[in-house]
Write a structure and sequence with these properties.
Blueprint lengths: L1 H8 L18 E5 L9 E6 L5 E8 L3 E3 L3 E3 L10 E9 L1 E6 L4 E6 L2 E7 L5 E3 L4 E8 L6 H8 L5 H10 L3 E5 L2 H15 L5 H17 L3 E2 L5 E2 L1 H16 L7 H8 L3 H12 L3 H19 L4 H7 L5 H12 L3 H8 L1
Antiparallel strand pairs: 1-2, 1-5, 2-3, 3-11, 4-10, 6-9, 6-11, 7-8, 7-10, 8-14, 9-12, 12-13
Length: about 325
């Protein structure tokens, strides 16, 4: 167990506070941009518990794709080097481009991804909300003391490569309860600026120890998509959004996109995390919710536009999604 190792190798310099006297002085706020001209940057926070290691915490309030465009008070881990990257999805869904595989991997809530890659590799957030945690590090950029400290806990470049190679270039797994609690503790400390260096060093070390030596359960089947499969799913989404009121079957969509219906269903679910019908249903409900706030359309018309000939079924689904009936929702929001 990690706690036993702490006692065995103590004193290990996990409580070194030479560099910073107050937590708020070393929590850096950054802006993540989809492109250099993006006028709606997303706030992110980073701390560096060891040299050559950064902890990232961010909340993404919209569907977004970004790569190397990072603006902040100081550059952090932006060298064109290959870093080990631990990504944890706290909420939402994220797509990570695996340069070594030339494919895309997906993390849903509670999932962990670990690979070696360019630190500025493309990330795509496939839902309207994402909350995530990242731990990026490069052993060559660490001080000898920091490498020695981590090696006491079996955290070495060789151990990291062994895990990645065992899982064919990318490890995907489900986080344990202990892993989730550590991430939540770090995220809370970053958000309220109470995280100090000793706590950051200890907790980041615990996370890597759990990943490499204890209880992050690997997925039985890792799901990836190629760039071609990803494009088919994106084209299907664009076609649906052109006019959500039109009922297109998977077979009709597949014919337009020159693939089979089973393949389209599989690609779409991998990329967006839901079946095509569920995605269409959610889009229609969002449109109905907006119309309830902004128009005086009657419920029967809204139901028909959402693809329901029976208004009662539409009302039941709306209440299941939003917690109140359409009539109550309109009364509360107008």
């Amino acid at each position: 167990m990690f706690e036993d190792l702490v006692k065995k190798v103590s004193p290990v310099p996990l409580d070194d506070v030479v560099h910073f006297s107050r937590a708020s002085e070393w929590i850096t706020k950054m802006e993540l941009k989809a492109s250099p001209r993006d006028d709606k940057p997303v706030d992110a926070y980073v701390v560096m518990p060891f040299e050559g290691m950064g902890i990232f915490y961010y909340t993404i309030p919209r569907e977004l794709e970004f790569g190397a465009h990072i603006d902040g008070r100081r550059p952090v881990l932006t060298d064109r080097l290959r870093f080990f990257k631990l990504n944890y999805c706290m909420d939402g869904r994220v797509e990570v481009f695996m340069r070594g595989k030339g494919k895309y991997a997906y993390l849903d809530k509670g999932m962990v991804g670990f690979d070696e890659n360019d630190p500025q590799v493309l990330l795509t957030f496939r839902k309207e909300y994402y909350q995530g945690f990242g731990l990026y590090f490069n052993f060559e950029l660490m001080s000898e003391n920091d490498r020695t400290t981590l090696s006491y806990y079996g955290i070495t470049k060789e151990a990291c490569m062994k895990l990645i190679e065992r899982e064919k270039e990318c490890f995907l797994g489900n986080a344990s309860q202990e892993f989730r609690l550590i991430v939540e503790d770090l995220a809370k400390g970053i958000k309220d600026r109470s995280l100090d260096l000793p706590r950051a060093r200890m907790q980041s070390t615990r996370l890597l120890y759990l990943l490499l030596h204890e209880d992050v359960e690997p997925l039985r089947k890792s799901e990836y998509t190629t760039s071609g499969q990803r494009k088919i799913a994106e084209d299907a989404k664009k076609r649906i959004l052109q006019d959500p009121s039109i009922h297109l079957t998977a077979e009709e969509l597949a014919e337009e996109l020159h693939c089979t219906a089973p393949a389209l269903k599989m690609y779409f679910r991998k990329v967006y995390g839901v079946p095509i019908y569920t995605f269409l249903q959610n889009v229609r409900l969002q449109k109905a919710e907006e119309d309830l706030r902004k128009t005086r359309k009657n419920i029967a018309d809204l139901a028909e536009e959402a693809g329901y000939s029976n208004p009662s079924k539409f009302c039941a689904l709306f209440k299941k999604t939003y917690g109140v009936t359409p009539t109550e929702y309109r009364r509360l929001h107008t």
